[in-house]
Structures are given as C-alpha cells and as structure tokens.
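Hi U.,

Before I forget, here's the chain from the pilot set. I'm dumping it here mostly so it's searchable later in email.
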Amino acid sequence: MVVQGRGRRARRAGLVGVLWATAELTVTVGVVVLLLVVHQVWWTNRQAAAAAQEQVRSLEQSWGREEAASPERVSGDDPLASGLPASSPDPSSVHSASPASPASSASSVPAPRPSERAAGAHAGAYAVLRIPRLGLVVPVAQGIDKRGVLDKGYVGQYPGTAGPGAQGNFALAGHRNTHGEPFRYVNRLRAGDELIVDVRGRRYTYVVGRILSETTERDTGVIAPVPRSVVKPEHGYSEPGSYITLTTCTPEYSSKYRLVVWGTLRP
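Structure:
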C-alpha cells in the first residue's frame, strides 16, 4: 500500500511538471509572437515612415540646389523634361502588378525614362505626393515592388502609367498598414480634396473626383489610361484626360480587396 501510494504521487507530480512546462512554453511562444507583431506593426512602421520623410527632405534639398545653380534647367510643360515616365500604359502590361499589391535606394536623381529601364524596374524617388486633408507628405518612386519601393514607406508608380501632369493615368500604390502606411486613411478622402504632386520645380494639383470603395486585386481597368473598373463598370471615367489614381488594400490589415481613389488634373 505504501509503495503504491508513492507511485501515484510520483505520477501526479510528473503530470503537474509536464503541464507546467507546457504552460511555460505556451507563454514563451505567445510572448515571441507578440514581439514579432509589435516589430512588424509598430517598429518597421516607424522606421519606414522616418526614412520616407528623410527621402522627401533629400529630394527637396536637391531640387533647391539644382534650381539655384541652374534656374533655366527646368522649363516647359513636357513631363519628360525631368525624366518622368511616358504616358499611354498598356493594361495588360500591368496585370501581374495588380492594383492590390501596391524606388529603391535613397536618391534625388529622377527616375529614368522607360527606354532606359526594363519594364517593372524601379529607381530612387523622383516626386513628392502631398495630401493636405490627411497631412500626408510621401516620396513617389518608380515601380510597385514591395522590398524596393512599398516597404520603404514610399508610394510606387505602376509601370507603364503616365507621368505627373501628363495625359493619361498617373497611377500609384501604397501600403495601408505597416511599413509607413502612407495610404492608411485614403478612405477619408472626399470629392474636391487636393492631391498635389511636386516634381523638381513643378507642381501638379489634382482634385479627387471619384472613389471606388472596393474592387478585386485584378481590376486593371482602374489604372488604365482612361480609368474605369472592369469589375464594376459604373465606376470610372469615359473621356481621355489627365488622371491620378491611388490604390491600396481594404479592409485594413487585409489584402482581400482594393480601395481606389481617382482625381483629375486641375487646369
């Protein structure tokens, strides 16, 4: 009887030990996961936002130096004078770079023309997007590559779309959450709000006209030269013009759908 009692107590103690170890392991894993989430949602967000603002300052300082050294360098109304991308995108060429997913190193040099770069390539930021309603000031770079552009807190221009101020569609993508989340509050934009694009001595002001609150990630019509949803054809435009398009994921912390904001160039 005594031997059996000791055996039961030993088994009971062993079970308690296993349960305690399991509980400790669960808590440890939970803490690690929480730290990873904090790092992803908070720390990388702060890093990207700070780096993006530094890039804006670098661009503006570079433009100021160039203007002071050679004020006649930037002249005329041709967007290509500053090395901006040409217009007339082919929707099929951006199908793989869907409006959902919305350049690389910090540089004040404008992006090369399409003839000087491969399709989908990216370079340093070449413009600054300002959205007064949101208090947003963010650099714009070529391409929508995550690591090279979007995760840096930049806004990326869809390959093949028109340059700022040009005829066609100047189409942009940006993160809504994490990595600087420049487009987190674009859902707050309303018709009549200004979208301002600065490019080396030039300023182009667009006015928000229409908003598509939800569409699929493969709705390439929203970034076509004359933007119109192919999923919801009642949303978009039917006449050629100078447009701007902002795309980001929706709902927040999800990449299931895309939110689209359109604007037209103010004369």
